[in-house]
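Chain A, query sequence.
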Amino acid sequence: MSRAAIPVKEKVAAHRERLRAAGRIYVNTDLPADLVAQLDQIKEERGAASRAPIIEEAVRLLIEKQQGA
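Chain A, predicted structure.
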């Protein structure tokens, strides 16, 4: 079966399984539109392919700040 013939739902499930195997967990949330606009601006400035690495960095910085690192 070619890659194009695999239904999207199965592709997404396989992708998420590969991420889980790599120790990553899918997180879904709602954010205010103004934060998403700022997030997208940072994403574009950095040339990131998605919002994920920007969000990951922000969460890491928050945790480090909270822990006093």
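The mean pLDDT is 92. The helical segments are 8-21, 33-46, 52-67.
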